[in-house]
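Onboarding guide, step 5: your first structure request.
Type a short instruction followed by the sequence, for example:

Predict the 3D structure of this protein.
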Amino acid sequence: MTNQPRFNTEGSLTAGLAAVGLFAVLGGVFLTASFPVPVGFPDGAAITKSLGAALFDIAPGQLMGEGEAAVPGEGFLVAFLLVGVLLDAALDGAVMLAKREEAGENVSLGTGTDTPEDAVAADGGPLSSDGGEN
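The system replies with structure tokens like these:
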């Protein structure tokens, strides 16, 4: 008697063909796409100062020093703000997920008198009988 898994082919032919077709279309798009030649910044470009000028709506010429060239910073500003909003949302989600609640109240380990016998401290060690660490 063999307990090997069996290959299930029921109802997956259409989904498989659609996935292969989508892969072929996307592969063709990516292989035939052409990109412009990358262009760097001129020598002496002050990217950070240009971004600060765009952020505070200051004329870039007021911040530039001798030999520094201004770079249009509006494109950087949009990316900067989007990354800031994304990181803020990630931090809010992490705080929300890290918060432990029981019956609507926040709980913390080892602060009550009804500590379970199998409770452990934050460092992994056992708790003493009075609820504090050993």
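Each response can be followed by summary notes, for example: The mean pLDDT is 78.
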